[in-house]
Amino acid sequence: MVKGLWFTELQTKNMALSLKTKQSLHHESSEFQEISMVDTYEFGRMLLLDGIIMTTIKDEFVYHEMIALPALNTHPNPKNVLVIGGGDGGAIREIVKHPKVEKATLCEIDGQVIEVSKKYLPEISAALDDPKVEILVADGIKHIRESKNTYDVICVDSTDPIGPAVGLFAKEFYQGIYDALKEDGLFVAQTESPWVNEELIKRVYNDIKDIFPITKLYLANVPTYPTGLWSFTMGSKKYDPLKVDKNSIPDTNTKYYTSEIHFNAFQLPPFVQKLLK
Ligand code: SPD
Questions:
Q1: Among 35, 50, 171, 228, which one is most buried in terms of CB atoms within 10 A?
Q2: Of all atoms in ligand 1, which is nearest to the CA of residue 54?
Q3: What digits encode the pLDDT tens for the residues 212-250?
Q4: pTM of the predicted model over 0.85
Q5: Are 112 and 28 within 8 A, CB to CB?
């Protein structure tokens, strides 16, 4: 890619986001996907998988704090945490900062995503070398199928529901997650945009609700994801994120998540509430 060219992500059939690029830093076809690293004027370095924006230096903190911290802080003792996907290490960075976490396992199918992120996104990936972290380069669906009664918290930091990631949005996978969690465990998955992924959100919410006694959706603003309004869905066996003691939420030096946002993120505008009825 030559300096000054525009990168365009076709976010839906009829909508695109374009960013002017400074430089293309890396491109390869791994066993699973096209991996690209591009430097942009507006959002800094940006990781793309199959041409879709996964993370950028400027806005990554929103997504990574919000996929990890509402779930971790809902569980009173999140000692053993699993991340499925998330090979850039951003979710792991937030998890290892939590004072109660003893072990964080990353299960990422594509080892090249980890390598490229370590090389070009050290701000995001550095915690992958933390002694509390175990890295499994493995299929998350298989790992979930083989894990029983193991984890306190699971974060599903997937790509969009296209190709190999489709299975990470399936009811069977959520049942596997239920079985992989301890008796008071909980999980969270990224569940796309309420503006353009309405049917997916409805289906996933209802599938999770059929399995978990407590199911809650929450929102955050991620400017480089389609529409900028992003959803996450939490399924919990015992603990309700809205019944957390605010004073028990540790300060982990965040830039988006706070103990107020922990509760406010679950306050949904009526057009989103309607999707969940
Ligand atoms: N539309 C892209 C959604 C990608 C969500 N996962 C990103 C992984 C960042 N750790």
A1: 35
A2: 7
A3: 999 999 999 999 999 999 999 999 999 999 999 999 999
A4: yes
A5: yes
